[in-house]
Amino acid sequence: MDVALVLAVDVSRSMSPDELQIQRQGYAAAIASPEVVRAISLGEHRRIALMMFEWANESHAREIVPWSVIETQADAQEFADKVLEDTTYGQRRTSISGAIRYASKLLDEAPFAAARRVIDISGDGPNNQGSPVTLARDAAVDRGYVINGLPLMTKGGIGFQFNIPDLDVYYRRCVIGGPTSFVIPVIEWAQFPDAVRRKLILEIGGRMPFQPPRVIKAQITFEEPYDCLVGEKIWQRLREQYFWDP
């Protein structure tokens, strides 16, 4: 296989039922698109291994489509049809760390030899349950896995209070990792199918999004520290404010 790719799809209640359906339809359309199938055909082995699961809290990880070999348009369409046949119900909390650990386990146990092993994780908010996301990320990268991110920076859903305005930066600084890892943010839901299609093509080819070359004078720069526990702190503040259960 050119790549073993795990699609980890956020179904936390911060997204509305309509948004969950748009997400599912967008993944199905992207997977079955001629552009993605063509990208597969251009690989060295001309086939990939693909599976999808949904995640929310630390204990919720539900398989949508099991490991499947995608080589032809018919294979891709069959996978997409299975995505559309399933039904999603939103779940409490957001544990990106739990999703990464579960995806890593799936890659550990994948019944395929693959040149690359990639976790493709989407989500509309920061980690707010389970171990710190950076620990899960580092453990996956140490295994040789690549983590790419699809931060959903859309408006809506009942969990808007957990949103952060720089979710794309959070994903870049705290979630993704490994060689050629990248983030493709989604600002509006209308962008979602195209963003997923573009992301899959890049992952299948083992490439990063194109960035124009820049000429920069030699210098040493350091980014400001980023608080990767921002989601946990938001949850703690709201829990104390509204007397929620842990």
Explain the overall architecture:
- This protein is an alpha/beta fold and 246 residues long.
- The protein is 39% helix and 15% strand.
- Strands 3-2-1-4-5 form a five-stranded mixed sheet, with helices on both faces.
Structure, briefly:
This protein is an alpha/beta fold. The chain contains eight helices and five strands, in the order βααββααβαβααα.
Distance between the termini: 43 Å
Counted beta strands: 5
List the secondary-structure elements in sequence, H or E. Answer: EHHEEHHEHEHHH
Low-confidence stretches: none
Query: What is the general shape?
Result: globular
Strand-residue proportion:
15-25%
Task: Name some characteristics of this structure.
single chain, 246 residues, alpha/beta, five-stranded mixed sheet, 8 helices, 15% strand, globular
Chart the SSEs and their pairings.
Blueprint: E1 4-10, H1 17-31, H2 34-41, E2 48-55, E3 61-70, H3 73-85, H4 96-108, E4 117-123, H5 133-142, E5 146-151, H6 167-175, H7 192-205, H8 230-242
Parallel strand pairs: 1-2, 1-4, 4-5
Antiparallel strand pairs: 2-3
